[in-house]
Structures are given as C-alpha cells and as structure tokens.
Amino acid sequence: MAGTRNYQSIGEVLVNVKTEFPDITISKIRFLESEGLITPERTPSGYRKFYPEDVERLRSILRLQRDEYLPLKVIKERLLKADTGDEEEQPTLEQAVGGAEPDGSEDLAEAPTGLQMSLEEMSAATGVDRDRIKELEGFGIVCTHGPEGGRYYDGDDYVTLSIVKDFLRFGIEPRHLTMYKHFADRESAFFEALVAPTLRQKNPDARRAAAQTLGDLTATSRKFKQALLRNSLREHLSGV
Description:
Blueprint: H1 10-18, H2 26-34, E1 41-42, E2 48-49, H3 52-68, H4 72-83, H5 93-98, H6 119-126, H7 130-138, H8 155-169, H9 178-199, H10 204-238
Antiparallel strand pairs: 1-2
Helix pairs in contact: 2-6, 9-10
C-alpha cells in the first residue's frame, strides 16, 4: 500500500526540504544525483525512491554548500570520510565566532578544476536564479568562458555564486557587489606589480617564489580587511 511505504518520491523530498532550503529545485536534486553525491534507489518503472537516510544525506550536502561554500568534489570527499567513520574535527565555538578553521586557516573553498557548466546547470547547482546569474555577469562578478556557441561557467564562478547567494538573501542587489569587484581589480593590479620583477626572471624557482608571495599577500589582505571591517562595525554600532 502506498500509505505504508517508507520512502519518498523526488517531489515529496522537494516539499520536505524546501522549508530549510527555499532555493532547492528538482533539477538540483537530479544534478546532485548525476554527480554521484546521492544515489536513490529506483522502482522497476524508473522512479526514484528516497529513504530517510537519503533525505538526510541530501540535507547534509545542501548545508555544506550553503554554510561552507564547498565545491561538490570536497563535499563528496567529506561524505566519504563520514561514511567510513573518518570524520573531520569540528571547529570550537571560539573558532566559529572568529571565522577560523580548526587549524587556524581562513582559506576560501578551492575552486573545482575542470568544471564547465551551462547557465542552467550552474543555476541548478548553486540555487541562484538564471536571470540573477546573467545580471551578475553584466556587472563582471562572474563571466562565461570558451568559444562562442560553447560558453560555460567554471569552478571560480561556482564558488563566487555560492557566496553571492547569501548576499542575495539579505536583499543585496548585484549592482551593490560592484564595490567588491572594483576593489579586487585594484588589489590584483597592485599585487601583480609587486611580483612582476620576480616573474620577469622567467625561471621555475622565481615563479614558485612569486606564487608563494601572492598567496601570502592574499592571506594577509584577507585578515587585514576582516580586522578593518570588524573595527568599523564596532565604531558604527557603538554610536547607535
């Protein structure tokens, strides 16, 4: 009897998780399945069967995307470790408040290499509406790559959109994000000028040194901006 079955259809799962994840779509659930992150059983007629553990796995994936901006490759590795009982250490409350990982790093999620997604695929993967993505592209926040007729979005665009989605939840418009783009462009040009003399040496050791310098500058810049923002907010809020 249908009323006693212990699994849900894909439509029922959508309704089940939509309260916590308003941006979820059937297309995204199918996309996650195609990427091998979820593996629901199928009925003889081909319909998906989501058992409670499948739904909880889906929720875990969506939380990692929403809260930690992790690419699917990293999420798959984390789930594999959890499946084998080799789970990673969770951050303490102090680390969570301070924005640091357990090892003290503050690295942005690494962009998945080789990722090539159409507009529809990127929208399904990130939960950002297609029109929003095109609007963000118009402001230079993301951009398509490749030849005409075969344009795609890459891993960097995926990470960027995963972060931008949180801004959009607060009612922030794509045009408001251009200040970050302008600053990033200026900072990039500044750092490039600093390492240019090393790059001109045209040897592998010099290039490795330049890459290390850029990494150190980026990490220092991120911490400096975080400190400035915290101080600025403290000053503004103290006057309220």
